[in-house]
Each structure stands twice: as structure tokens, then as C-alpha cells.
TrEMBL record:
Gene Ontology MF terms in the entry: RNA binding; rRNA (cytosine-C5-)-methyltransferase activity
Pfam family, one: Methyltr_RsmB-F
TM stretches of this protein: none
Record's compositionally biased regions (Polar residues): 622-639
Phylogenetic placement of the source organism: Eukaryota, Viridiplantae, Streptophyta, Embryophyta, Tracheophyta
Main subcellular location: nucleus
Keywords, sorted A to Z: Methyltransferase, Nucleus, Ribosome biogenesis, RNA-binding, S-adenosyl-L-methionine, Transferase
Residue spans of biased composition, Acidic residues class: 52-78, 84-118
Protein name: SAM-dependent MTase RsmB/NOP-type domain-containing protein
Binding site for S-adenosyl-L-methionine: 323-329, 347, 374, 470
Keyword Transferase in annotation: yes
Any Gene Ontology biological process: maturation of LSU-rRNA
Gene Ontology CC: nucleolus
Organism of derivation: Coptis chinensis
Length: 838
């Protein structure tokens, strides 16, 4: 307190006469000299005798002490701390003046001193008051921060559920919960667990943004809450429109010039692409310019450049694009190959071939063979849609000219056109069926098996240099393009996708020749951010084939997950790349690049984790009865040689013919290919599916279903008995079980190694009894809300593409760009130096 008191005196505001004196004194060089001497003196004193009189003097100057004490000290200039305290600020200077003044002249009036003391006291009091107020306010803030927000009680939640959603309340609550969760220890409400907050957050995010329970649950697990909010917000905004220059016909700069002259406001996409342009706005429809028609560019999302860049196809190679329509990536591959070599552009869905061929033609691609095959190696799995026919309503009109796109005898007049020729090989004869209400179709249908050929069978194994598998997926990375994904995708959709993807990736690997001189690479990509469709698929491929992950050659993107919750993937998964809208300002995307080491297919032993293949998609309700290993073992049993495949197919055919089975256990909940074409984006980057239920159809297909169900349940009754083949799963909580299944993780269950028809039938019957569990959220789009944008939040860091809107201007040259950057840098560094100097 003694120090304070002295100090306060020194910083007391001088009177005007005082100021004048101060000015004069500070200008006076002799004063400076004195100050220096005084400082030196102080130094000496302190060093020579720490307990010198100055301390005593300080002690004398108590808060209540008479001013005289301090005055003596000040007047005599004895206080060695004086300079230390006063140095540096205006106030200090003023104090210094006071002290010096006293030193210089003893002739100042007592009045002045009293004024100073008075001032000083006032300031003391004012400070004390302010400090007290600040303290009180701080306490209040702390109290408010921790107290103001309470999770709603169950009654409140119940009441809320009866009302239309109160969006502002939801928004406030989301913000509050995110704030609390990001500083949980400090801000948590007494007695409330993190889980409680997370559960409420999930509910609120679902209601506010329209996600279903499943999807929001997965996202909450994948991202820290603050980031999750950013991701979800970024899904609410469209990504920039991009186009790729077709270097077979044009150069980016020339194209940009022409487009700018047409009123297209565009810029180079980013530093990682030499051919991309980002379009901010345009006075002409960008998909209908003469340049577009002439094939000078392809409208393509920025993310879809990435897999082709990772593939890095070389001239004169043999390259397969396994899932090609509508050809955004195929045409890019062709451009990189300069139209040399061969590209096999495969697309399973026939209606999509139109857009593929049209794009190839428009872009002047001449090295590509378009194929219409199933990319998988074998029909193999009894889990895929057994009536896997692709229908569209117009094709079901009686008298439609028939075409047969598979093998077998020509289909007679009056039967159905299969738009992809994709017909399950195990389908028995069916006389009549209908797909939709009131639409009965007479169908003299398939008297022999009608099978779409498989691409790997047609091209052969180990025959090509590179394969791009831009796999069909759930589309969870492109929610900004298709909001319905939020509400429509269920656990089963993800699982079905992952299952198909695993089949496709093995087929892709098998087509590549490990001994290719220039290649031997496989690139796998999806526009999904779900781990089961990405890392889990690659991890599976690493276990099943002699391949290794190599860097994607993309210098941005986040590394893939090597672990997620209890799941562990191969450490090299960090070489894969993930792209997010909130980080990279492009669609959610995943890219992995594999190098095939040898053409051998490793045989896996039961102990190997490679056996932990996901099982077939199973309806929710029946999962608990089926162990992970069962599903897994079905997959690991999948025939790896053509002979085995044939054996299996023959066996299945016999079963079907004998009326024992219809391998259609996933008919329900399995999306029919291509039914919802309207939901495809321009590039077909995602596929939407809606659960396709037999309940929608009527007529004899239902009776067939019933009949087959009966047979199966009869068979399962006969066989589910004590062969003891199915060991009940240990009590996993349902979430864990779901996750494990989706990830294909093994569970330590013993399974029936001698499984066969009976086991197979039993499992199917169990599955068929299941029900879809996930509740779909309303698809309603909420409008009157506004969350702070990422820009407003200052979160637009690390973005790969500018969002800024440019005014119409000339397309800058490379030199212009680098010049202006250099200038900016200079200005910035000048500014910094200036600030630093200040
Ligand atoms: C993501 S899209 C491909 C987009 C394309 N790569 C592009 O860049 O334009 C996936 C495609 O795979 C096709 N597809 C689905 N199942 C398939 C299968 N079993 N074999 C081959 N293609 C399949 C879908 O019809 C869809 O066109």
C-alpha cells in the first residue's frame, strides 16, 4: 500500500500551472541530467544496501499517513523508485515533473500541493469504485454464462414437440450447446453430462436443418461440435460453379477471354488446377454458350477434378473408368491422355449412357470405348437386389419394343424392357407382376436367365494400366446440391453402398496389371464423407488384395481417418484425402490411390483381419440375431475363381428352381437403380435412392414374395436348430452393433463354418423380418432463419476457392496476378514494419 500511495501521488493529474512547469522542466537538459543521476544513485543504493532508508521511507507512507511523509520523500528527491514507476507514460512524465519540480524549486505554493493531493484522492476513490464495479460485473458475467442456459426438461421437450418448431429458440439453443460443449469443464450445467448436451444438440440440429437422426448422429461423431456446425452451415450454401477447360480443344486463358467477352465473370479456379475456372456470375446460361456446345469446356464441380488428377493417366495407356456416366471424369482423362491409348468408359445404367456418349462426342474424345456392364466381378452376393431390374414407368407400357441387353434368348413381345439389362440370375419365371398401383403388366418374362455381363469378365484380369472407380455412393458430400440426402439416407443405404463399393474395388484392382510399365494404379473416389464408404472400403481392399496406398499427389485435403471411435484402419490410410465444403469450399469428397504390387490374390486365413468383411445389408430389426462373422464369412466365401463363381451360381439356381429360396432378402430397403433420376445432379455425381418396398407393388409379385417367405421361414425352422451354428452375439449396444456392421469390423463370435443353404435361408428369413428403424426427418425447408455465415464468423480460413464476387473485368494474366500479389505482399510487410516500429 505504501508503494501505491507514493505512486498515486506521482501519477496525480497536475494542475495547469503544473503542466506548464512540467513542459519547461522536461525541456530543460539539466533536468534530464538530474534524472539520470538520480537513477544511478538509486542503483547504487539498492546494490550497496537493500535495506536502506528508502524502504523505511516507503513504509512511512501509509495509506492513511499524513501527506507530509511522502512530501518529504518527494521533495527531497530521495525516492529511488520514482523513476522506475514514472518512466514510460504521459502520466509518468507528469509525475516525474512533479517530483523534479519539487526538487528544482521549493517555492511552489502549498495550495498547489493541496490541489494535487485532492486530485489524487479523487482519482483513488474513482479507481476503487471502478474496480469494484468491474469485479461485480465480472462475477455477474460468470454467473450469467453458467446459469443463463438450461437444457430443456423432458416436459419442455414434449411441449415443443407439439408445436411447430420455434426456429429462433432452436438456433439459440444450438449455439449455446455448441458453446458449452466447446468449453465443457467451465460452462457445463451442474449435473448435466456431455451426452445430455450432445443428444439435445442432435435433436435440435435435426429439427433446424432437416437431417434425419441417423445422419446427424454420424456427423456428430465425426466432427467436433464447432466444426460440425460449420460443415452443416456450409451444406446450406451452394458451392461455386466451376468449369474445366477441354485442353483437347482450347486453352484456359483463351476460353476465359471468350467467356468474359460474353459476360461471364470468371477466374482461374485455384492454384492446384491449370484447367479450372470458377464462375461467379454470368449474363448468359453457362451451360448453353456456343463454347459449351462446341466442347470447349465441361461444367464440373471442383472436387471432381481431383480423382482424375490423382489417377494421372499417361498417354497411350489402357485406362478404365468403371462408373463413368455422365463422363465428367472420362473426358478429363481423355484430355490428359491427349486422346491417345484407350479408355473403357463403363456405365451400368443404360439411360445414363446417353449423357456419357453425348459428352464424349461434344468434347471431341476419340480414344474411348463406351461399355454397358456391371462393374462388379460376380453377381456373387445374394444380398444385392435380387430383382435388381431397373424400371422406369414409360418402359412398362404394353407394346414397348423390346430389347434384350443381356445373354439368353430374345425376349418375346409383350415382355418388359430392362433398361440396364440387369436381371438377377436367380430370378424364377414370373408370369405377371406390377410395379405400381393400377399398372398391371403382362409379362412373358425371362424363360432363361438373363444376366448382364460383368466388366472384369469382358476386359479380363490384369489387363489395364489404370482404373478409376468413381463409385456410386450415398452422396453425403453433396448435400448442398441435393438437400433430400439429409433426410433420406439411412444406415442401410450407407451399408448397401459400402457393400457394392467393396465389390467394385476388388473388381477394379483385379483388372489392373501390376506389371504395367507406366501404371498399375487404381484411384477410388466418392462424393460421400461417410467412413464406411471410404476408409473402410480401402482398408478392406488392402486386406483382400496385394495393393498399397500411395500419395494422391494432391497437396491439399485432409488425411483420411486411420481410426474412428473403436475402429482401426491401416495406418497408410492417412495417405487418402478428404475434402470438405467448410474447409476447402468444394463438395465433400474422398480420394484414395492404390498401387497394385502383384497380380496374386492373397488367400486370407481366418485369423487375419482381412476376414472382417462387412456382411450383407440386413434390415435393422433382425441384426441382433446375426453375428458379424456370419455376414463376414459370407463375403469371405465369395468365390474368388471363375469355377467357384459358377459353382455358387449353379447352386443358387438349383435352390431357386427347387423353390427353396429366393435370394431377395434385401428387396425391401434396396434402392432400385435409377428410379429417381430427377435427383441426379448434372454430372450424376450422386444417386438417390428411396427404400423400394414390395409394399408399393401389388399383384402376383406379392404372392410370390409371400410364397417364398413361407418357404424360407419353413426352411429356417428346420435348420436354425442345434447344429449350433449361430452363436448369439454378445450384448453390444445397438449403436455399436450398427457401427461395427457398417465398418465391417469383426466381432469375436464363433460362426458356423459348415454353413450352407440352411444357414443362408435362415439368415435371410431373419433379415426379412426386420424393419427400417431410422425415422426420416421432414424434408421441409426452413426459411426465415439466419445463422451467422462463416464469413461473418471469420471462419473462412483455409478455403481453396474464393467466394468473392468479382466485377466484370479483364481476365488477368499470370504475370498480372503475380505482380499484384507481390504488391500486396509489399504493402502488407510495410504495414507490419510500420506497426512494429510504433
Ligand atoms: C458417381 S457416379 C459417376 C460419375 C462419373 N464418374 C462422372 O464423373 O461423371 C456413379 C455411377 O456409377 C454407376 N453405377 C452404379 N452401379 C454400378 C455398377 N455396379 N457398375 C458400374 N457402374 C455402376 C451409376 O449409374 C453412376 O452413373
Amino acid at each position: 500500500m505504501a508503494f501505491t500511495s507514493v505512486n498515486k501521488k506521482k501519477i496525480a493529474k497536475p494542475t495547469s500551472s503544473f503542466k506548464k512547469q512540467k513542459h519547461e522542466i522536461t525541456k530543460n537538459p539539466s533536468f534530464k541530467k538530474q534524472k539520470k543521476e538520480s537513477f544511478n544513485k538509486k542503483e547504487k543504493v539498492v546494490v550497496s544496501d537493500p535495506s536502506s532508508s528508502e524502504d523505511e521511507e516507503e513504509e512511512d507512507v501509509g495509506p492513511d499517513s499524513d501527506d507530509s511523509g511522502s512530501d518529504i520523500s518527494l521533495d527531497e528527491g530521495e525516492n529511488p523508485f520514482g523513476d522506475d514507476f514514472l518512466d514510460g507514460s504521459d502520466d509518468d512524465d507528469e509525475g516525474k515533473s512533479l517530483s523534479s519540480d519539487d526538487e528544482d524549486s521549493d517555492s511552489d505554493s502549498d495550495d498547489d500541493e493541496l490541489d494535487i493531493e485532492e486530485e489524487s484522492r479523487k482519482i483513488d476513490e474513482k479507481r476503487a469504485r471502478e474496480q469494484k464495479d468491474a469485479e461485480a460485473e465480472l462475477q455477474l458475467n460468470i454467473k450469467e454464462e453458467s446459469d443463463e442456459f438450461h437444457l430443456p426438461t423432458e416436459e419442455e421437450i414434449g411441449a415443443e414437440a407439439l408445436q411447430p418448431p420455434d426456429l429462433s429458440n432452436l438456433q439459440r439453443r444450438i449455439k449455446e450447446i455448441v458453446r458449452i460443449l466447446s468449453n465443457f469443464k467451465t460452462l457445463r450445467q451442474e449435473g448435466v453430462t456431455r451426452k445430455d448436451y450432445v443428444e439435445q444438440l442432435k435433436r435440435d440440429l435435426s429439427s433446424y436443418y432437416g437431417y434425419n437422426e441417423f445422419l446427424i448422429g454420424v456427423l456428430v461423431e465425426m466432427f467436433p461440435v464447432v466444426e460440425l456446425l460449420e460443415l452443416i452451415e456450409s451444406y446450406e450454401k451452394p458451392r461455386p460453379i466451376c468449369l474445366r477447360t477441354n485442353t483437347l480443344k482450347s486453352r484456359r486463358r483463351d476460353l476465359a477471354e471468350v467467356l468474359i467477352n460474353r459476360g461471364v465473370n470468371c477466374d482461374p479456379l485455384s492454384k492446384w488446377s491449370k484447367v479450372g475456372l470458377v464462375v461467379y456470375d454470368s449474363q448468359v446460361p453457362i451451360g448453353a454458350t456456343p463454347e459449351y456446345m462446341a466442347g470447349y469446356y465441361m461444367l464440373q464441380s471442383a472436387s471432381s477434378f481431383l480423382p482424375v488428377m490423382a489417377l494421372a493417366p499417361q498417354e497411350k495407356e489402357r485406362v478404365v473408368d468403371m462408373a463413368a456416366a455422365p463422363g465428367g471424369k472420362t473426358t478429363y482423362i481423355a484430355a490428359l491422355m491427349k486422346n491417345s491409348g484407350i479408355i473403357y468408359a463403363n456405365e451400368m445404367k443404360e439411360p445414363r449412357l446417353k449423357s456419357l456418349t453425348a459428352n464424349l462426342q461434344r468434347m471431341g474424345v476419340t480414344n474411348t470405348i463406351v461399355c454397358n456392364y456391371d462393374g462388379k466381378e460376380v453377381q456373387g452376393s445374394p444380398h444385392t437386389n435380387s430383382f435388381g431390374m431397373a424400371f422406369s414407368e414409360h418402359q412398362l407400357v404394353a407394346g414397348t419394343p423390346m430389347r434384350h441387353s443381356g445373354f439368353g434368348p430374345p425376349i418375346s413381345h409383350g415382355s418388359v424392357l430392362f433398361n440396364s439389362g440387369y436381371v438377377d440370375p436367380f430370378l424364377p419365371n414370373i408370369e405377371t407382376f406390377s410395379l405400381r398401383q393400377n399398372r398391371e403388366i403382362q409379362c412373358t418374362f425371362v424363360t432363361s436367365w438373363c444376366i448382364i455381363p460383368f466388366l472384369p469378365k469382358v476386359l479380363g484380369q490384369n489387363t489395364v494400366d489404370r482404373v478409376l472407380l468413381d463409385a456410386p455412393c450415398s452422396g453425403t458430400g453433396v448435400i448442398s446440391k441435393d438437400e433430400s440426402v439429409k433426410a433420406s439416407k439411412s444406415f442401410d443405404d450407407i451399408q448397401n453402398s459400402a457393400f457394392l463399393q467393396k465389390q467394385l474395388i476388388l473388381a477394379a484392382i483385379d483388372m489392373v496389371d501390376a506389371n504395367s510399365k507406366s501404371g498399375g494404379y487404381i484411384v477410388y473416389s466418392t462424393c460421400s464423407i461417410m467412413i464406411p464408404e471410404n476408409e473402410a472400403v480401402i482398408d478392406y481392399a488392402l486386406k483382400k488384395r496385394d495393393v498399397q496406398l500411395v500419395p494422391c499427389g494432391l497437396d491439399f485435403g485432409r488425411p483420411g481417418f486411420t481410426r474412428f471411435r473403436e475402429h482401426r484402419f491401416h495406418p497408410s490410410l492417412e495417405k487418402t484425402r478428404r475434402f470438405y465444403p467448410h474447409v476447402h469450399n468444394m463438395d465433400g469428397f474422398f480420394v484414395a490411390k492404390l498401387k497394385k504390387k502383384s497380380n496374386t490374390k492373397p488367400t486370407t486365413t481366418p485369423s487375419e483381419p482381412a476376414e472382417t468383411v462387412e456382411h450383407a445389408p440386413v434390415p435393422e430389426g433382425s441384426r441382433s440375431n446375426i453375428t458379424q462373422d456370419e455376414g463376414m464369412s459370407q463375403q469371405s466365401e465369395a468365390p474368388s475363381s471363375p469355377e467357384k463363381e459358377n459353382d455358387l451360381i449353379q447352386a443358387m439356381k438349383t435352390m431357386v428352381k427347387n423353390g427353396n429360396s429366393k435370394p431377395s432378402e434385401t428387396f425391401e430397403g434396396t434402392p432400385p437403380p435409377n428410379v429417381r433420376g430427377k435427383n441426379r445432379n448434372e454430372e450424376g455425381e450422386f444417386e438417390l435412392s428411396e427404400p423400394y418396398s414390395l409394399e408399393r407393388s401389388n399383384g402376383s409379385i406379392n404372392s410370390l414374395k409371400k410364397m417364398l417367405k413361407k418357404q424360407k421361414s419353413k426352411a429356417s425352422q428346420e435348420t436354425s436348430e442345434p447344429s449350433g451354428t449361430v452363436v448369439p452375439a454378445p450384448a453390444l449396444d445397438s449403436n455399436k452393433r450398427k457401427r461395427n456392421k457398417a465398418f465391417g469390423n469383426s466381432q469375436p463370435h464363433k460362426v458356423n463354418k459348415g454353413r450352407g443353404k440352411a444357414n443362408f435361408l435362415m439368415k435371410k428369413s431373419l433379415r426379412e423380418n426386420g424393419q427400417m428403424k431410422y425415422r426420416s426427418m421432414p424434408e421441409k425447408k426452413w426459411t426465415n432463419r439466419k445463422f451467422p455465415s462463416r464469413e461473418e464468423n471469420g471462419h473462412m480460413k483455409n478455403q481453396s476457392m474464393p467466394e468473392k464476387k468479382w466485377t466484370k473485368r479483364k481476365f488477368p494474366s499470370r504475370e498480372d496476378i503475380s505482380k499484384s500479389r507481390e504488391e500486396k505482399r509489399k504493402v502488407l510487410s510495410k504495414k507490419r514494419t510500420h506497426e512494429g516500429a510504433q
